[in-house]
Design brief:
alpha+beta; Rossmann fold; D-amino Acid Aminotransferase, Chain A, domain 1; Dna Ligase, domain 1; 5-stranded mixed sheet; globular; D-alanine--D-alanine ligase; magnesium
Length: about 325
């Protein structure tokens, strides 16, 4: 079936072969529902937990079938959080196939997904990051607890495998939980500060837009249940004085630029007495209408469908 000439055919890719599969399905469903049918012909594609590609009717079509579907579309809109998606894998598929796609390219996706690499890039441009070190299965047996730390997988999202360790006996189970998700782990100092998220969008015309920041008010660790259980306390705009607002915005823009991001990215900080401390960068942030990024842009006067429209019009090859 041919798309009418006034509509853009968009393949929305959700799911994924990783632990964020369900979150990605929710984001993809929201994007699919919100793209204006007057402007867009949406073609859903789903990647199963086993890696099987499925079409609109959830029939298995395999990678070859998915490639044929993608070639029949004007733009691909990947909404696969985590490994084999957000890490540049789907960007690579689109680039090899010569398909325009929404979001960051291969290198920024891979760098931002790797929290250790993100630290190195951020530090090179003068952005303060959470103090920490890298742990592997070979070095985990030598790890010793001396003070409260956060243990997290290097390349995962949605706070999966993340543990706040406040006593020695909890360190080994925390390392095991993180290593069950990824082969490399970060052990980071606990940073005392406010949790502030900043979003950056590269518009279709190339200009950058930073909406009002969001503050997460959490009792303890902002974990998976807090994020998706419907009880998160998001304050938008975050109450910030002009000095802190500008410091956060400048750091977010610097991180976005240094990593080479495109589309929209969410940059997460701790705001301390000494200024912003970078926690991590998300190049495929949650994209339901109630997720942090759409809510920040709503506070700037940009509706969810308008945000999606900017992203699709800004798609690149």
């Amino acid at each position: 079936m041919r798309t009418p000439p006034n509509r853009t055919r968009v393949a929305v890719i959700g799911g994924g072969q990783n632990c964020e599969h369900d979150v990605s399905l929710a984001s993809a469903a929201a994007v699919t529902a919100a793209l204006d049918p007057a402007s867009y012909d949406v073609v859903p594609l789903t990647i199963g937990r086993d890696g099987t590609w499925r079409d609109r009717g959830l029939r298995p079509i395999g990678l070859c079938g998915a490639a044929q579907v993608l070639r029949g579309c004007d733009v691909a809109f990947p909404v696969v959080h985590g490994p084999r998606g957000e890490d540049g894998a789907l960007a690579a598929l689109c680039e090899l196939a010569g398909i325009a796609y929404v979001g960051s390219g291969i290198r920024p996706g891979a760098l931002a997904m790797d929290k250790w690499a993100t630290k190195l890039v951020a530090g090179a441009v003068g952005i303060t990051t959470t103090p920490g070190h890298l742990v592997t299965p070979a070095t985990a047996t030598h790890e010793r607890w001396t003070h409260p730390v956060v243990v997290k997988p290097v390349a995962a999202g949605s706070s999966l495998g993340v543990t706040l360790v406040t006593q020695s006996a909890a360190l080994r189970p925390a390392l095991d939980a993180a290593l069950a998700v990824d082969s490399r782990v970060l052990v980071e100092d606990v940073v005392l500060g406010r949790e502030i998220d900043v979003a950056v969008l590269r518009r279709a015309d190339g200009s950058l837009l930073v909406p009002p920041a969001l503050e997460i008010v959490a009792d303890g660790l902002f974990d998976y249940d807090a994020k998706y259980g419907g009880h998160a306390d998001f304050r938008i705009p975050a109450p910030l004085d002009e000095v802190d607002r500008k410091a956060l915005e400048d750091a977010a823009l610097s991180a976005y630029d240094a990593l080479g991001c495109s589309g929209v990215a969410r940059i997460d900080f701790f705001l301390t007495e000494r200024g912003p401390v970078l926690n991590e960068v998300n190049t495929v942030p949650g994209m339901t209408a109630h997720s942090q990024v759409p809510r920040m842009f709503a506070a700037a006067g940009m509706s969810y469908p308008e945000l999606l429209d900017e992203l699709v019009r800004g798609a690149h090859r």
